[in-house]
């Protein structure tokens, strides 16, 4: 099976996240995690660095920038690595492993921006998305794990993103061509076991990212690789009066992740071999220039 076929038929990948300080872009690649240094404005720089390890399906940095979490659906496990103050993996501490009960993670993972919580897409179709608490040592734990969604088709094909204010969780469903929004309580749990809003869209939405000012939601079409921008209403719900707009000239076939710089200056979209970057208007979240595609460094097995 080719990489493109794997991307279309397998779980949604979200192999791209930005350190909350905006210093590093973490990119999943076949032999581990590639760390791309970012300039003060968010522009990718060189040289990149590797952290060897399992090929992830999902990558998420917690809101404190203390840990990097990755999912391994094949092994039905969640791994994490402690980061130092500079955002690099701490020396002398390797990948640690958590094997959750049940069917395990199925691709995407995202961290709450201010609470010690992870949201994980489950492989079990009866529990599409779960909320996983983190202990004081950042270790995931079974105690307090709750199910956010018990409905929906092919749950392990879903992408996840959280509003920067922690008020809403966004779940993409490419099979159903919908964007789903969960209202979150102050403790980060959902108000109910179903979405507050389900919005049908023409594309098949895959990887997601939210503008840090909460202006819009970005997503990649799993079938074509086109990037789209869906406006958010005040409070975090999708603006149902406005259809998602395709970003001009921004097409990333086989997209494996979408991320936004914490200052809202750049939008990133990755594949196994490239990184596409476009500068953004920090107020509106719309592109202010043409996207540029950069080759990612390669590491042979």
UniProtKB/TrEMBL annotation:
<protein>
    <submittedName>
        <fullName>Uncharacterized protein</fullName>
    </submittedName>
</protein>
<dbReference type="InterPro" id="IPR015943">
    <property type="entry name" value="WD40/YVTN_repeat-like_dom_sf"/>
</dbReference>
